[in-house]
Write a structure and sequence with these properties.
Elements: H1 5-12, E1 42-44, H2 46-53, H3 59-67, E2 70-73, H4 74-80, H5 90-102, E3 109-110, H6 114-131, H7 139-156, E4 159-162, H8 165-174, E5 179-182, H9 186-194
Parallel strand pairs: 1-2, 1-4, 2-3, 4-5
Helix pairs in contact: 1-6, 6-7, 7-8
Length: 195
């Protein structure tokens, strides 16, 4: 089948993890601004597509996207195409997304395999339990998608490039062998400075 539940449980040790995850301070996190221009491959999270398409990606992210090898996930494709068909801008947004997807080389678009799906389920369950969020608000599904992207990147030896700071910080705490590169969009940076 390709998924070894016993090995995944041995590796993640969900039964031994207690308490609540806490986001690390910014100085302890890997930021796009601190990354060398030339480096290892990137695995793009959905936040990257949204920020680039809306013109709000920071310069450091744009530079990394220009010079680094970029891989893509079918999980993000799924997230990008969940739109309300009745919304006035949906047709235009879908055209933009379609053009973006057409630019992705087929050999750089990856689908999670059975092992990654199984591991992601265990990891997402652990993340949900340790994040202490309320049930029934969609967090579990979001965590499965984040875990899929994180584990796919790890499998490829790539770093996840993402603006989803909290969730990917948590994932990298739970699986320290996965790599992440974080950023804040300029709008998010302004909100932090004023708040």
């Amino acid at each position: 089948m390709g998924f070894d539940l016993a090995e995944t449980l041995r590796s993640l040790k969900p039964q031994k993890r207690q308490g609540t995850l806490e986001r690390r301070v910014d100085d302890d996190l890997p930021w796009a601004d601190d990354e060398p221009t030339i480096g290892g491959p990137l695995f793009l999270d959905t936040t990257v597509y949204l920020d680039v398409l809306q013109g709000r990606s920071p310069g450091a992210v744009d530079t990394l996207l220009t010079y680094r090898l970029c891989h893509h996930s079918a999980v993000c494709l799924s997230e990008l195409t969940r739109l309300n068909p009745k919304h006035a801008s949906t047709k235009t947004v879908l055209e933009t997304i379609e053009a973006t997807l057409d630019d992705i080389p087929e050999h750089r678009l990856h689908t999670p395999d059975v092992a990654i799906w199984g591991q992601a389920g265990v990891l997402a369950g652990l993340l949900f339990r340790l994040s202490n969020l309320p049930k029934g608000e969609g967090h579990q599904r979001r965590f499965v998608n984040d875990a899929l992207v994180f584990l796919q990147a790890r499998q490829l030896g790539a770093s996840v490039l993402t603006g989803n700071i909290r969730d990917f910080d948590y994932l990298s705490q739970l699986v320290p062998t996965g790599r992440i590169i974080l950023y804040r969009s300029p709008a998010a940076s302004r909100r932090l400075a004023s708040g």
